[in-house]
Automatic annotation (TrEMBL):
Record-linked SUPFAM superfamilies: Multidrug resistance efflux transporter EmrE (SSF103481)
Membrane topology, as annotated: Multi-pass membrane protein
InterPro entries, per database record: AA-Vitamin_Transporters, EamA_dom, EmrE-like
Residues annotated as transmembrane: 32-53, 65-83, 89-110, 119-137, 143-162, 174-194, 206-228, 235-256, 262-279
Natural source organism: Salipiger pallidus
Compartment annotation: Membrane
UniProt KW keywords: Membrane, Signal, Transmembrane, Transmembrane helix
Stated name of the protein: EamA domain-containing protein
Domain EamA stretches: 5-133, 148-278
This protein's record includes keyword Metal-binding: no
Length: 284
């Protein structure tokens, strides 16, 4: 029961990241790159402080660290850039659809035998993403912003795979965040003229970025790294199916977003396909 509650809290935190990021960018108080950097720095301070309090020091090395840093970096900036032009629910659907594609390809690369049911599920999920992005008819989402979110999904998939290698979850999450935040500060220096041209930072947007970094990202990732080694990969994948639904509901209730028929059909295909791929086969 406790593990179930931890998974629920983590999924709510992930959905909240979509809402916080989208709200900050639509307010006009910050640019996408600056939001991602502030989010990283706030998360690094939160996780670093927790590790120092519990363990007295932070070890930056470890299994899967490089992959985790690359994945987190790609996710953070792709995610923020995408939400410059995507609604919260649609962005979350693209993100976690791509996460599942990444996991599927990873299984193939590792030589895992893929049953027919998983191939069918992957085909359905891919068809849903293709339908969502296909031009014509009802307006398709912006392709540049969609590509940024697909890149973020690739990064999150790599980050999640690296998390399964962690021996001390909190320390691993903190080290990954601290290293990635350092890289983010270098990116911010290069992108500083863009932020100035955007008009600077607003207080509300800064607060949303700090909450997203310290709470829903920092503490959320610490929980995710704690939970991942204790649950099968299929259960982790199924749990993440709830995030687009939660983000969509939050976007409609809090941000005034709407549910289009195109998005509804795509969501049914993607979530149904992923569910078919990862749910265990019923035994006689």
């Amino acid at each position: 029961m406790r593990l179930f509650l931890l998974v629920c809290v983590t999924m709510c935190a992930f959905a909240a990241n979509s809402l916080l990021n989208r709200a900050a960018l639509t307010s006009g108080g910050i640019d996408a790159v600056s939001f991602a950097t502030l989010r990283l720095v706030a998360g690094a301070f939160m996780l670093g402080a927790l590790v120092l309090l519990r363990h007295g020091g932070l070890r930056l090395g470890g299994r899967g660290r490089l992959a985790g840093v690359v994945g987190l970096f790609l996710y953070m900036y792709g995610f923020s850039l995408a939400y410059d032009g995507l609604p919260a629910g649609l962005g979350a659907l693209l993100l976690f659809g791509m996460v599942q594609v990444t996991m599927f390809v990873g299984s193939l690369v590792m030589g895992e035998t893929i049953p027919a049911r998983r191939w069918l599920g992957a085909a359905l999920a891919f068809a849903g993403l293709a339908w969502l992005l296909w031009p014509g008819g009802e307006a398709a989402p912006s392709l540049p912003h969609s590509a940024a979110m697909l890149a973020a999904g690739l990064g999150w998939g790599v980050y999640s795979l690296a998390g399964r290698l962690s021996e001390v979850p909190l320390t691993s999450a903190a080290a990954t965040m601290v290293i990635t935040a350092g890289l983010g500060l270098l990116v911010q220096l290069g992108a500083w003229p863009v932020g100035l041209a955007h008009g600077g930072w607003g207080g509300e947007a800064i607060a949303l970025a700090v909450i997203s970094g310290a709470v829903t990202s920092g503490l959320g990732y610490a929980l995710w790294y704690t939970v991942l080694p204790r649950i099968p990969g299929s259960i982790a994948a199924v749990a993440q199916l709830t995030v687009p639904v939660l983000a969509m509901a939050g976007g409609i209730a809090l941000l005034g977003e709407s549910l289009s028929p195109r998005f509804a059909v795509s969501a049914a295909l993607v979530l149904g396909g992923v569910g078919l791929s990862v749910l265990p086969k019923r035994r006689a």
